[in-house]
């Protein structure tokens, strides 16, 4: 997450500067109310992208979108991705990037809402990277689930378990979790095991 790498991606889009914005983004991911959507998650995404960069059609756009995809994060809001996408678009335009680049990066950020299937290969790659945590090693996945629980600690536990179960079951019901073949091979089976285990932990066993 070093400044030089950020600036390479930022300036590859025709944007000027970027030092102050880099600091602002780091500060956002370090906000105290975050437990999962933190610098740890950002670093994991950027590291995986570096492995998969050769699959990207517009690698700098994906890299910048990863920096912005959780830039605005408030568990009490339902428009975090839209707000993050707007920030990315405005920042790129203000720094001299083209309107087309700004719109593509904003679309990439919006794809991480996970509400509809990603439309382009770059959107698929970015979304798969964001969801790679589902296929992480069991210890990291357990940590992730605990981190999500911390972020939603204000929600009564029965309600949290119900809503979290609905989200995890929704992912599990998908015929395919990962659209990028390389990431599907790497994460699909582990993700389904993790999701099944997490659901079993959320749903209390009936009394005998």
Describe the overall structure.
- This protein is mostly helical.
- The chain has a single domain, classed as Orthogonal Bundle (Hypothetical protein af1432).
- Helices cover 65% and strands 0% of the residues.
- It contains 10 helices and no strands.
- It has helices at residues 3-12, 19-29, 39-52, 59-68, 80-94, 99-111, 121-130, 138-151, 157-173, 181-202.
- The longest helix has 22 residues, at 181-202.
- The protein is globular, with a radius of gyration of 17 Å.
- It starts with a helix and ends in a 6-residue tail after the last helix.
- The mean pLDDT is 94.
Residue stretches low in confidence (pLDDT < 50, at least 5 long) are none
CATH domain topology: Hypothetical protein af1432
Percentage of residues in DSSP E strands:
under 5%
Q: End-to-end span in angstroms? A: 52 Å
Q: Describe the sheet with the most strands.
A: none
What is the share of helical residues? 55-70%
CATH level-two architecture:
Orthogonal Bundle
Number of helices: 10
Q: Give the SSE order as H and E letters.
A: HHHHHHHHHH
List keywords for this structure.
208 residues, mainly alpha, 65% helix
Short précis:
With 208 residues, this protein is mainly alpha-helical.
List the helices and strands and how they pair.
Blueprint: H1 3-12, H2 19-29, H3 39-52, H4 59-68, H5 80-94, H6 99-111, H7 121-130, H8 138-151, H9 157-173, H10 181-202
